[in-house]
């Protein structure tokens, strides 16, 4: 259900990943769009977006949703690692980041996913406590 708080957190994580994906698209000299993201980053972003959307629609299966969110968190850390590797392997000295706020967006996504997992855990504990009373 969309009105659950973890669904809103997952939507926030999805929006952060979509923003990162579209920030990697720049206009080339010929006027057409060119990707400034590496193919590994694009693939990770696509997989992350699919996992988060799938997790939003698995609201009836809380434990499955929890596992999908953990996998998304791991993939976001991999994305941050790929970005760190690419920025450290650039030749020359750069005073400012080339990606701008794009560095922070996967970290924001991780925060939203952790908050969603806490809300899912709280719901699961509530259901278990009600089942004990029956």
Q: How much helix, percentage-wise, in residues? A: 55-70%
- This entry's quaternary arrangement is single chain
Given as residue ranges, the uncertain stretches (5+ residues, pLDDT < 50) are 27-31
Q: Provide mean pLDDT, rounded.
A: 82
Topology at a glance:
Blueprint: H1 5-23, E1 25-27, E2 33-35, H2 39-56, H3 62-88, H4 105-133
Antiparallel strand pairs: 1-2
Helix pairs in contact: 1-2, 1-4, 2-3, 3-4
Walk me through what this model shows:
This protein is mainly α. The protein has one domain. It is 69% helix and 4% strand. The chain contains 4 helices and 2 strands. It has helices at residues 5-23, 39-56, 62-88, 105-133; strands spanning 25-27, 33-35. The protein has a two-stranded antiparallel sheet. A hairpin with a 5-residue loop joins strand 1 (25-27) and strand 2. The model is unreliable at 27-31 (pLDDT under 50).
Features:
134 residues, 4 helices, two-stranded antiparallel ribbon, single chain, mainly alpha, elongated
How would you sum up this structure in a few lines?
By secondary structure, the chain is mainly alpha-helical. Helices cover 69% and strands 4% of the residues.
């Amino acid at each position: 259900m969309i009105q659950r708080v973890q669904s809103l957190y997952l939507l926030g994580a999805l929006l952060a990943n979509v923003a990162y994906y579209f920030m990697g698209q720049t206009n080339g000299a010929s006027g057409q769009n060119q990707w400034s993201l590496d193919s590994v980053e694009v693939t990770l972003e696509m997989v992350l977006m699919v996992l988060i959307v799938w997790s939003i629609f698995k609201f009836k299966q809380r434990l499955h949703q929890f596992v999908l969110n953990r996998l998304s968190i791991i993939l976001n850390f991999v994305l941050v690692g790929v970005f760190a590797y690419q920025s450290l392997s650039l030749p020359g000295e750069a005073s400012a980041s080339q990606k701008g706020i794009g560095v922070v967006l996967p970290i924001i996504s991780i925060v939203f996913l952790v908050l969603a997992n806490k809300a899912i855990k709280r719901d699961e504990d509530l259901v278990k406590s009600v089942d004990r009373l029956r």
